Amino acid sequence: MLGLGTIWAGMSLSSVLSSPPSLSSPPPTHNVSNQYINHIRNTNQMHSSTRILGECVGFKHTDDWRRIRSHTDRHFTASIAIESIPVLMKDVKEWFDGLEGKGFIKPISEKGKKMEVMASDLFWDIPFKMISKVIFGEMLDDNLFKELWSYNGLHERLMMTSFFGKLEQWALSSYLPTAANRDMAAFQRGWGDLLKRVSNEAYEKGIFMPVGEMYKKVLDGEMTFPEFTHTIDETLFTNIDATTVSIMWAVTLVAQHEEVQERLLSEIAQIWEPEGDEEDQLNLYLKRTDTLLHHCYMESGRLRPILFYSMSEQTADSKVIRGHVIPAETSILINGHALNRVSPIWSPDGDVFRPDRFASLSPAVYRYSFWRFGMGPRKCLGMHFADKVVKCCLFESVRRYKISVRGEVDVRRDRFVQMPLATLVFERH
């Protein structure tokens, strides 16, 4: 399996990698995924998206990438994510307590025992609230959350324009009196002002929060203000889409497979020990990676990666992949959708939802066969939080409801992420 191809990305032709050999070709110096840290980022990104994200850490490369990550990584460690589980689980339970009264729910039986909902309407505010708590800490009150949520709506419009707008791909479009440019100006001005205001208030009150600590790096000259605002944008707004869609697919796929759902409910029922502390037992269960719950999370991410293709990058040096020379500064994409399904590791049922496959596979085995948070050192900043959010939501969904799918499952064509188009039926146990 060669796993090499080409595709147009913007105005340039990009090489597409879609198999383990193309990502791990010997010798080690030619290992594409291990050299992401040396890649040239921010290639073929549409002009509109660079105006709001062009200076974020995810678009940076080499020394700039290392510099910014040195200021951000400490706030998103695996240990901090684990410590956040009790607070996250509390938020998830409160969200489900109010689910039957939400406007997007359609009751289909008396007293709300059975209800219908579009998968793409679910869970949006759960990961948003969690990450807001992580980065704003004690400064996050109801008023600030409402303000952040309003910017999320504006940001979503801007991202839709960036990915689907034709005019906005061109730099000259930024000078035109369009609604998109008015939205862009309002977001850039308001977002920067909000972050400065909250950071200054936190300093005056002696409150520690990651946003405030990163703003200090701006004042100290270790980050530029656009790097600061764009990186917080990436963390709070852009990555939330990825986490939310991951939850949607996990719940939808489990809903499609009744036998898996029954086994998962049975597993959940067995985690409680009469003499143990309920919260401690739940926290331990959610941290484990040898459970059916975790395997469902992994399998849903394998079958339905957030994007079909990775963002475009350029190689800093020439590389040899399976005997083919990839010149320096070649634009490269990873076809995650194909990689996650056609690798021999997943054979003979790579297109089938079978969570149990992860019970016998170690991460080292599928290292170059599973694209989700990126590969190598450039993995997503919030990856440690993503699995906790998805597992908490899937846990509570199955614990409270029998979930089924009405009709066919497809992918929405009006979103830049791979979002499910499905009608789910929730019936209380």
Q: Explain this structure to me?
A:
Pathway: Secondary metabolite biosynthesis. One of its GO terms (biological process) is secondary metabolite biosynthetic process. Belongs to the cytochrome P450 family. Helices cover 48% and strands 12% of the residues. It has helices at 20-23, 47-53, 62-72, 78-83, 85-97, 125-136, 142-164, 179-205, 210-219, 225-256, 258-269, 278-287, 292-303, 336-342, 383-400; strands at residues 4-9, 12-17, 106-107, 114-118, 313-314, 319-321, 324-326, 331-334, 401-411, 420-428. Strand 9 and strand 10 form a beta hairpin. The longest helix is centred in the middle third of the chain and has 32 residues, at 225-256. The chain is globular, with a radius of gyration of 22 Å. Residues 25-44 have low confidence and may be disordered.
Write the layout of secondary structure elements.
Layout: E1 4-9, E2 12-17, H1 20-23, H2 47-53, H3 62-72, H4 78-83, H5 85-97, E3 106-107, E4 114-118, H6 125-136, H7 142-164, H8 179-205, H9 210-219, H10 225-256, H11 258-269, H12 278-287, H13 292-303, E5 313-314, E6 319-321, E7 324-326, E8 331-334, H14 336-342, H15 383-400, E9 401-411, E10 420-428
Parallel strand pairs: 2-8
Antiparallel strand pairs: 1-2, 3-4, 4-10, 5-8, 6-7, 9-10
Helix pairs in contact: 5-15, 6-10, 7-8, 8-9, 10-13, 10-15
Q: How would you sum up this structure in a few lines?
A:
It contains 15 helices and ten strands. It has helices spanning 20-23, 47-53, 62-72, 78-83, 85-97, 125-136, 142-164, 179-205, 210-219, 225-256, 258-269, 278-287, 292-303, 336-342, 383-400; strands spanning 4-9, 12-17, 106-107, 114-118, 313-314, 319-321, 324-326, 331-334, 401-411, 420-428.
